[in-house]
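Minimal example, chain plus pyridoxal-5'-phosphate.
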Amino acid sequence: MKFSYVSHLQCPKCNKEYSAGVEHQLCECGSPLLVNYDLEELRNVLKREDLLKRKPDLWRYRELLPVQREENVVTLGEGMTPLIPMERLGADMGISNLHMKDEGIIPTGTFKARGAAVGVSMAKELNIHELAMPTNGNAGASWALYAARGGIKSTIVMPVDAPKITRNECAIAGANLYLVDGLISDAGKIVAQTVRDQGLFDASTLKEPYRIEGKKTMGYEIAEQMNWKVPDVILYPTGGGVGLIGIYKALKELQTLEWIPQGKLPRLVAVQSDGCAPIVKAWKEGKKESEFWEGSETIAFGINVPKALGDFLVLESLYETNGCAVAIDDESILEEQKQIAELEGAFVCPEGASAFVAARQLREENWIKEDDVVVVLNTGAGIKYPDTVDFELPTLQPGELINKAEVFIEE
Ligand SMILES: *Cc1c(COP(=O)(O)O)cnc(C)c1O
Ligand SMILES: [Zn+2]
């Protein structure tokens, strides 16, 4: 049996086809390329039960990933993150069946590890020795570390405001790290120029076709963990939108394989910050593409993307599944983050918290029904953003006793 059932790459805009196994960036027409598989053939040789005896990481879906030779797999054990029932938080929101897919429990602490694992493995397979990318922090951190593991050099450019820990991750992995006094879009322009001048491989979001293949495995896992019954609603904090496009792609592939029921897919929800909500604006206006969001700003750094290359694919996934797009303010994000920690013991990242706020609001509007099965993606660990938590502490002198009445701070 083949390691991968990859067949070819195809442009979702102009349908032009490209062969697998050779280096590609964007389509001639400027659109990102998507990877196709021989699903009809695979359906006859692989049964979903066959997965049960495999390791609990994303390579359990190797036939549905683009890497063709096992020796090129670069892994740190990423994938099969827990799907956790959130009963107390759900009760508080009035949702009886609320789950969190927790991507905080993965190497590098965010789901970016999935894209990096598959992207870097493909870079290795294609004999790429050096790559470059702009990042809001988490992707750069994951790619720098996975590139190190794969023996590939990396050049990373990130905004000075990106979470400091992500700088450290790049630095300790030996990446060439540059800070830019601007946004990810400014970092992107610098990388594009460097790529042209120095012939590096451009690993920017969706400019290489394989990161999305790693991220789509969140969709496979949700289906497998729910015993191949898909939820009613999936909420996802959306920046570049690769995770959402990936989950949508994964679910459609599973339908073709007949591993999940035909017909209705989960309603997908793109959650953004109201300080950077280009997808939400486009969705509200019924548009097929978004416009650049000027002066974007939010504490949820991973979703601060003023214009996504794959915006038209994100919007398509919302329209096709009867989903929606919601913008959340930073204050509500921080409140929800605290609520989740207090009620569930989970320290989620601000991006993840935004998706929980969206679930709460959509339930209030009755867009989510009481007994809908709801999955929220927590895309990263709260401990990667220590500075978002703000509090004061009483300090004791040695030997001083605790007077509870004084110590407990009321807000
Ligand atoms: C990158 C990132 C996102 C957004 O992911 P996309 O797939 O690019 O939309 C969400 N949350 C966190 C923590 C991230 O790092
Ligand atoms: Zn094209």
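The chain has a mean pLDDT of 96. The radius of gyration is 21 Å.
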